[in-house]
Amino acid sequence: MYPELNIGIVGHVDHGKTTLVEGLTGKWVDTFSEEKKRGITIRLGYADFSIYRCKKCGKLGVNKKCIFCFSDCKLERTFSLIDAPGHESLIPIVLTGASLFNAAILVIAANEKCPQPQTKEHLRALEIGKIKNIIIVQNKIDLVSREEAERNYNEIKEFVKGTIAENAPIIPISAQQRVGIEFLLEELLLIKKPDYQEGDFLFLIARSFDVNKPGITPKEMVGGVIGGSVIRGKLKKGEEVIIKPVKIEDKYVEIKTKINKIKRGELEVEEATCGGLVALETSLDPSLAKSDRLVGCIAGTKNLPDTIYKLESTYILFNDYKLKNGDTLLITCRNSRSIGKIVFMNENNLKVELKNPICVDKGNVVSYSKLIEGRWRLIGFGKVI
Ligand code: GDP
Ligand code: ZN
Q1: Closest by Cα among 205, 358, 199 to 284
Q2: Domain span at residue 221?
């Protein structure tokens, strides 16, 4: 069974994301480990995990053996987990991640007042990404009394009122003590598979690798691998795609390449469709894909959007954030990001000159982040016009 959904995990720093991810995947990997980058499976910031149901007691778990009664379990469903690091400076990464999420887990610690700054910011990122499937995890319940847990629950309820997470289930757990995880798994099983999106194949590249081990012969060498998610259409093994905007020397170009292999999780498949992470082995010179060089690019069969150097968009700002001509912004749109300078603005629209070009369609959602006291802050969003 291959992963059929991308689950994002977000929340304030120290609220327990890493602990929960470890509990679900059992093998969270060092994000920057060189070793893990080789291997067609994408593990950089991602991990696949499966939910199993015990054949005897019916309880859910993430292992093939039941942790309650040690009986054998049946595989129920496989997911790709995308970790959006919670460090305060990384909201742009959360925003990029959100373009790939089909659903999200928002982790909120029960022993702190809700909302903490990043809890708020990450929920906004989910709203901008229109992530409707949200599960709130009220973590660290082992540290609070029943009354405190209830008070915190009410704070969460109040916080999500009127937002996209208004009706999200709130599951009390202790990620560290592994308490309540089966209820979270129950909710994850209920999430509907994303609908197939008609249209020309379009793939957002979130990772790219050279998977060749040192010392292999030229005959054994395989092309660069791109990892990401299909957002539209489908692609068969052997078909060609265009990748853009690829930086070669100082120019941004588009390149055409044949897809030789398609992998979903550990499985090799004939076709790439939406849902979960997909790895495409191209015919490209692997050095072109090495060390995430193609991240932020798109791959598609035809009618790809133009490469834009100047972005025109609408804007709505949060709180009392202000913008003026000449300000530097970080633009996040789908899987691409760029620093840019505002060269024109009026009441409704912005024109931003980008440091590096991006490929986006009219109508795509753009997020604006600004460096405030050394941290990128999500200050607003808009639409490409
Ligand atoms: P992250 O920054 O959101 O990834 O948070 P971590 O997973 O690194 O957790 C931060 C700290 O909280 C670590 O010391 C964890 O061991 C601890 N922690 C995480 N979950 C729980 C929990 O359920 N109960 C308790 N008591 N501690 C927890
Ligand atoms: Zn059991």
Answers
A1: 205
A2: 202-300
